[in-house]
Amino acid sequence: DIASVLGVRPEWLSTGAGEMLADSIQITQMQTPVTPQNGIYRVDVLDVKASAGPGALITNDFIETIRAIEYTSEQARSLFGNRPAHHIKVITVTGDSMDTTISPGDEIFVDISSTHFDSDGVYVFVFGKTLHVKRLQMQRDRLAVISDNPIYEKWYVEPGDEDQFYVMA
């Protein structure tokens, strides 16, 4: 289901209430070394669409793995460093607000162990009940949500909105 793939509690995903992270998942993921099976590093391609636009409504709690991409250990190390395979997923981007960086229909690699904003960059996040892929930048006491396509205006996650904002990757 979506919650287990993202390492969050199902109750939090559907209602936004309570603790976000599933403690057992968080601890397991952080302590698992990179050990590809039989020299193969497998990355799941998920049936998830993150919007580079107004936001993709989260409509169900189940995420299906469509297929997987397999890499040799050397290829994986070059692409993903020492990140464990279960941290790396592939999702599809819809919308054109990130055009020039990410085009509509692109499949992108995401690191689902990144669950908080720590520096300027492109993130997958939930705001309210919609899933986005956007550039985030801290500006004074609020977080700017920036589209790389210049026809879209930036918007902000204000300090009072923090309970509706969750970084997913």
UniProtKB/TrEMBL annotation:
Which intervals hold domain Peptidase S24/S26A/S26B/S26C?
A: 49-166
Q: Which UniProt keywords apply?
A: DNA-binding, Transcription, Transcription regulation
Q: Name one Pfam family in it.
A: Peptidase_S24
KW Glycoprotein (keyword) present = no
The entry lists its GO molecular-function terms as: DNA binding
**Matching InterPro entries:** LexA-like (IPR039418), LexA/Signal_pep-like_sf (IPR036286), Peptidase_S24_S26A/B/C (IPR015927)
Q: Which domain of life is it from?
A: Bacteria
Tell me the PANTHER family matching this sequence: FELS-1 PROPHAGE TRANSCRIPTIONAL REGULATOR, PTHR40661
Name of the protein in its database record: Helix-turn-helix transcriptional regulator
What organism does the record attribute this protein to?
Answer: Klebsiella pneumoniae
**Organism ancestry:** Bacteria, Pseudomonadati, Pseudomonadota, Gammaproteobacteria, Enterobacterales
